[in-house]
Amino acid sequence: MRPIQMVDLKQQYTKIKSEVDSAISEVLDSVAFINGPAVTQFTAALSAYTGSKHVIPCANGTDALQIALMALDLQPGDEVITPSFTYIATTEVVALLRLKPVFVEVDPKTFCIDPAALEAAITPRTKAIVPVHLYGQAAPMKEIMDIAKKHGLAVIEDNAQAIGSDYTFPDGTKKKTGSIGTIGATSFFPSKNLGCYGDGGAIFTDDDALATRLKMIANHGQSRRYYHELVGCNSRLDSLQAAVLNVKLKKLDEYILARQAAADYYDNAFRNHPKITTPYRASYSRHVFHQYTLVLEGVDRNGLNEFLATKSVPSMIYYPVPAHRQQMFAASGGNSYQLATTDWLTERVISLPMHTELDDEQLHMISSSVLEYVNKN
């Protein structure tokens, strides 16, 4: 049996090596390392795939979120509602821009923002909502967009973990996550479902004026060279990473199917176990399984994590400390939030290996090791 990895990028690369090496070689031969043809090609292909009118590539997913917020021209102290149960980048950029993050609960089944908690948190100072499509599951965008329209708020989708996911509206129409809100943001960190071989990110919008502003901010605030109309930053996707992404985007749906097949195996292995809750698959969401995350009840989660390590089975805890309990938000009152569901989840979640290269032998080893510990403890 091959060694089990949380994300097996080596095996995935081996299968596409000739295509990736050829694409990188083309960039090296062209010496167009910044804003070269590979970037133009990838931007157009990603726009076609997601259905977004405008795609603005950038340096990483955190920059994508920050530039999105900067484009809204918010003022210090304006409130931005976001879940606390998420990677810190979602909330970090809010604070970095001297905005006020307002933390709200998530649904205990989907792990995504709870619309009722969201609406209850709105005040006259609220200007934006940042829903997170966590672990590959779409947030309830119909409810979120209805609330945003009712209160005149912008919606920035954090789509770093769910690129390729479809959201189905009640009337049956579908849209890709990241293309529904005012602005979408994603990451191409190597471990993502669509990952490059370094850092990378992208921003999505259908709004022409916002797209112009986003492009300017990502390029030092300029629309033409040396004429800087806005305070911006330097955030771009380099051509080598775009070349890799051009290859991998063509395989994204295939990769999603492989992840879903692995998730099906896990689901069957743990089905109806009284101490294990497998990932919920909302009817409106095409779950793309960036992570496969269990919720444990009556199990020593940290003990399981350590036991799996002894079996050479990796596992991860995403996320052991929610944003509102992080030290960076202590001075702004983070600890004053009472988010019982979020706290409950952080004590019980554990993620198992999830990637495109898992085979049945590995999946059997992983699931049987989990069951061995849970059934004995």
Task: Itemize the secondary structure elements and their pairings.
Blueprint: H1 9-30, H2 37-50, E1 54-58, H3 61-71, E2 79-83, H4 89-96, E3 100-104, H5 115-120, E4 126-129, H6 141-151, E5 154-158, E6 166-168, E7 174-176, E8 183-187, E9 201-205, H7 208-218, E10 222-224, E11 227-228, H8 239-249, H9 252-270, E12 276-277, E13 292-296, H10 301-310, H11 340-346, E14 349-352, H12 360-376
Helix pairs in contact: 1-8, 2-8, 3-4, 3-7, 9-12
Plain-language structure description:
With 377 residues, the protein is an alpha/beta fold. It folds into two domains: 9-104 and 112-249, Type I PLP-dependent aspartate aminotransferase-like (Major domain) (Aspartate Aminotransferase, domain 2); 252-376, Aspartate Aminotransferase, domain 1, CATH 3.90.1150. The protein has helices at residues 9-30, 37-50, 61-71, 89-96, 115-120, 141-151, 208-218, 239-249, 252-270, 301-310, 340-346, 360-376; strands at 54-58, 79-83, 100-104, 126-129, 154-158, 166-168, 174-176, 183-187, 201-205, 222-224, 227-228, 276-277, 292-296, 349-352. The strands form four sheets. It has a seven-stranded mixed β-sheet with strand order 1-9-8-5-4-2-3, with helices on both faces. Strands 12-13-14 form a three-stranded antiparallel β-sheet, with no helix packed on it. Strands 6-7 form a two-stranded antiparallel ribbon. Helix 3 (61-71) packs across helix 7 (208-218) and helix 9 runs parallel beside helix 12 (360-376). The two termini are 27 Å apart.
